[in-house]
Amino acid sequence: MSAIRTVLGDIAPDALGATDAHDHLFFAAPALAGQELDDPAAAEAELAAYRAAGGTAVAQWTPFGLGRRAAELPAVSRAAGVHVVAATGLHQAAHYDPALVRGLHARGLGGFFTAELTEGMVEGDDPDGPRGPARAGMIKVAGMFHGLDDHCRRVMAAAAEAHHATGAPIGVHHEAGTAAPDVLALLHGEWGVPVTSLLLGHLNRFPDPGLLRELAASGAFLAFDGPSRAHHATDWRLVDCLTELAAAGHLRQLLLGGDTVVAAARSVTGDGPGLPHLPRVLRPRLARALGEEAARAVFVDNPARAFAVDWRGGTPYGRR
Description:
It comes from Actinacidiphila polyblastidii. The chain is α/β, with parallel strands linked by helices. The protein is built from 10 helices and 13 strands.
């Protein structure tokens, strides 16, 4: 049966509702030392504020080994009344101890991802740690700036293996919005992942109209995030990009997220804009630009198709 896998269990696609398709409740990366998202109470408060603003679901793209707090996610989700889709996968090599990555490859990285999708996520950052009941509902991978290194390629190969075993969607971090054609060539062209199981992230950070039309023509989901403190320079182009792609016939492929990665960016315990910005500010802006039906497509209908899978047979749900 087709379902979206949340940390509290599988739900019907039409139960997901208004969705932040790319964000973080917990995140701790070496490059952001001292700015970690690691407080469950703050995560719960942020989710509650998001719920009050009209949001009902969040996809947390934090992969294994970056403080995703898999053990905390069910309680935070339940307390706030917000669906949470969690991620397995790995980020760029710079975020990990090389010995940890070597060990994961030795044990079978694709199998590790698959187990987190089907059996339960490891609750800490030790791959041999306890496995909890909460299962991941997506796979997160990452490219490099204008290219892919060996680590990226090996992780994406493992993600493709896990996708073929489960049907899970693959979300891709594109460094500064670049290298998406390389990712498509590898995951779809070489490894046979259907393009409609690919969520290409951070595309607003490299808002080249020609490139965006080329990526949209592939049929993949295009995930835009904003506002972003680190990439605020391109935030003003966000609605223009979405409007142009919708006018070109690609409305059904568009996703929108906030990508809150530092504690200071939270709305409740930081100085914002945080998760509530999407339903409070961006959805009304999109409705004014494209109409309420289009805004609903981006926030409700598209995420319901992007994250839903026939988990029993590994067949993606609702693909075009």
